[in-house]
Specification:
alpha/beta; single chain; two-stranded antiparallel ribbon
């Protein structure tokens, strides 16, 4: 039986309609997946200097964990792995295309895209239904480069040596090429974002559509506020109604974000029909990824029992800090930083390989011995955690960890469903030879996640 969060992704209930069938963002804060390795290995180095560390992400939905893990790699000091290989599996190629986009943007040299502009571009493309003209121009330009990368392996290797598309099938590359061509054309009529968002709201709220502001307020007050009060009521209402999450400057956000356009197949009397639209989350919001926790405590100050900052501001600081640390290997503390200061690394992904995998790769991954003992860390998002099976166990390396997204911020799940989700994930991990590691979960950096270690390590 599918677990609650996964079943919601495909269900026809109002809850499933709200969550959608394509998770463009995850539902938990970004975490550093490399940090727990030293403790898991009882003080041993977090990776052999020759072999390095291998990380698998299954259904993460975005690259938040990739960015944080690589940005903070230097914090491990002598235990920092010199080589990191990251494998990414998603349930839709549109998500892999977005991963390429956000990672390539993060890798842009400062002389091409400054730090503040990079933050604004990343957050807009990540979570806004509409974007600025400048952002649209950037998307058009980089899409042309992406087309060259997916059609010419040698060109990809020369331009972005960290990106490995070698495991993609020809049909996957063809699909990526078509996605990038659609991004490049920038035809608003091909993706009428406001209309498709409103259509989703009408299906979700049904006869309650005209009273949706009151219903959004209820969701905020009764479901969200106690879990993430830094998300301001007004910004949550704005996002729910319009899809605009991040309004980082006074500008016109009026061009559809075509990276959020996907096709969904419907059964009709005439057969199956693919309909293009927005089929992602319209209930929970993209604020969870970067906007609800931070190392900068000043962003959570209260005045008259109310936050003086918003989740959008927290997101802006966190992304700026990640991009700054990724480029300099120096932690950024000040909210006043808008450009890189200090010495910059020439290659932010030095020693890193990111391998994008086909959507149906999990079945192949657990078969045979190709991936025997490969993964030091395996991350499972809530939409694909059903792939955490006994057959997966042999792919974990010695002292390997499993990290799973909790369902704390899936608002249409009742508390008992969230508890059921967690219990089933624990049972699935146990069947895969892993037990919960509460000490690792207690770390602030692993908030809202379950962490498991192999039973053989605990016995040892």
């Amino acid at each position: 039986q599918p677990i609650p969060a996964a079943s919601l992704m495909a269900s026809g209930t109002s809850a499933g309609e709200g969550l959608g069938c394509v998770n463009f963002w995850g539902f938990t804060p970004s975490v550093d997946l490399l940090a727990p390795l030293s403790a898991a290995r009882s003080g041993a180095a977090a990776g052999n200097s020759d072999e390095g560390v291998s990380v698998l992400l299954v259904g993460a939905g975005d690259v938040r964990h990739v960015l944080m893990s690589l940005a903070r790699r230097h914090r491990l000091g002598a235990a920092a792995p010199k080589k990191v290989t990251i494998y990414i599996v998603e349930h839709a190629m549109e998500l892999q295309a977005r991963h390429m986009l956000l990672l390539a943007l993060a890798a842009e040299p400062s002389e091409s895209v400054g730090l503040q502009e990079k933050t604004e571009l990343l957050l807009e493309l990540f979570g806004n239904l509409h974007i600025r003209a400048r952002t649209s121009e950037y998307l058009t330009a980089i899409s042309a480069r992406f087309i060259n990368w997916v059609t010419d392996s040698e060109r990809c290797k020369a331009d972005q040596p960290w990106l490995d598309l070698g495991l993609l099938k020809y049909r996957d590359r063809d699909e990526l090429e078509e996605i990038f061509k659609a991004w490049k054309l920038a035809k608003a009529e091909a993706f009428p974002a406001s209309a498709v968002w409103d259509a989703r709201l009408r299906v979700y709220y049904k006869e309650r559509y005209d009273a949706r502001d009151n219903l959004i307020d209820w969701d905020y007050s009764m479901k969200l506020h106690d879990r993430a009060s830094i998300i301001h009521q007004k910004e949550f209402l704005r996002w729910r109604n319009t899809g605009l999450a991040f309004e980082l400057r006074e500008a016109d956000y009026n061009i559809p974000n075509r990276t959020l356009a996907t096709a969904r197949v419907f059964k009709t009397a005439d057969g199956k029909v693919a309909k293009k639209g927005y089929w992602g989350d319209i209930v929970n919001s993209p604020y969870m990824a970067f906007g609800i926790v931070s190392e900068n405590a000043s962003l959570f100050k209260l005045a008259n029992n109310a936050h003086t900052h918003t989740s959008g501001e927290v997101s802006s600081f966190n992304v700026t800090a990640l991009l700054h640390e990724l480029r300099t290997d120096e932690k950024m503390d000040s909210t006043a930083v808008t450009e890189i200061s200090g010495k910059e690394k020439e290659n932010v992904f030095e020693g890193v390989t990111i391998r994008l995998l086909p959507v149906d790769y999990m079945q192949k991954l657990v078969q045979g011995d190709r991936y025997q003992g490969t993964f030091d860390v395996a991350y499972f998002g809530s939409s694909m955690v059903q792939h955490l099976t006994p057959a997966f166990a042999h792919t974990l390396a010695k002292h390997g960890l499993v990290v799973a997204e909790r369902a704390d911020f899936i608002l249409d799940l009742k508390k008992e469903q969230q508890a059921e989700f967690e219990t089933k994930v624990v049972d699935m991990a146990a069947a895969a030879g892993c037990s919960r590691w509460k000490e690792a979960e207690a770390a602030a950096s692993m908030s809202h996640h379950m962490v498991f270690r192999q039973k053989s390590d605990i016995a040892a």
